[in-house]
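Standup notes
- DV: blocked on the single-chain target, sequence here:
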Amino acid sequence: MPTPIPRRLTLPNGLRAVLCPMPGVPAVGVSVHYDVGFRSEPEGRTGFAHLFEHLMFQGSESVDRLEHFRQVQAAGGAANGSTHQDYTDYYQVVPSAALERVLFLEADRMRAPKLTPENLRTQLHVVKEEIRLNVLNKPYGGFPWTVLPGLLYSTYPNAHNGYGEFSDLERATVDECARFFDTYYAPGNAVLTITGGFDPERAADLVHRHFHDIAARPTGPAVDLSEPPPAGELRGEHPDPHAPLPATAVGYRMPDARTELDAYLAHMILSSILTGGDASRLKQRLIHGAPVVTDVSTGCGLFGALEARDPDTFLCVATHTAQTTTDRFLDVLDEELADLAARGPRDVELARATALSAAGTHRAYDSLPARTRAMGTQELLFGRAELVGDIANRLAAVTAEDVALAAKGLRPDQRAVLSLRPASATAPRPVLTGS
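- DV (later): unblocked, structure below
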């Protein structure tokens, strides 16, 4: 898929728009990213951002409940939304002829969603059922993203469970929803992204036509996410009554992608060297050699690379039998990181990892919805929608020295190690300790 050249415009009410025409594509992707996510939630209201995402599909000033979905589907398209650490996005892909219809729908709910007691009550039940399905009643549900942050981080924004506690969700009121909307869903707190087959002049006119009369509102202050890295290794346990095998999750702090992008990308290459394919270091040692684990993976970010502001997390997660202790797994991980820090990757390892990472990036952004959402995310978080077209080449340019520096930064004395205990576990919550 060709790399679009973005054109930017800002409306008087503060709404930022990124227009990325792609000649020859018969469809358009439209996303609206709001600068609010799990880490914006007030204390005592865990899960509120995700609950509010659901409410935004329950009708608006001129659109009935669930009519947004119906109109997009009737045009031959698809729509959805998602909540992340630092943003909430709403997105759809439709034939190019339906662009104005989608812009009208997005503008209408940016102007005035229907925040009613009935809608809140209905979506509260939906969200609770989603948590039961994806976390409470599922083996390894929410592991590690709902629980590891509470060990690795110390401040409420960074540490709490973004899916939320039922007790917090059940206390939500319509008045709180209205305040949340006024604070975080102002046009000046949003990025509108349009990609695909469209005329940029007409699209700019449509953006002005449908969004210009939405009143500007002040937005709340940015959430303070700053905190120092751990002063020592942190250990904790997480009981899972549904898991058949133990698991271990290890979390490290990463460089800030906004100010140290190349160092961040080096961690993506490091991840590929460690677990990217059967020839990777950890899979060779832990699975294909003397079997120590049944599965092992590494990655940047709780939800993927370049999906969050600083602080972000480098993850290593392994599932293993009861005969393999957490320390046995950590010994191998530490040995490989120490070797990479001291000697760097071999030439063949680096070539394979950069090729895999660059190809994976191309695949990840190949579809229109994925490209639209990624451009909106990277514009909102880093002010650089162009990263979608640049990342693959920058990954390919990562050097052995860059990887060695990344490995050197993943220190045992600045990490969190969370051990999942399977079916026999009875403790209701993680036990967190520092060492």
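- Follow-up: The two ends are 49 Å apart (CA to CA).
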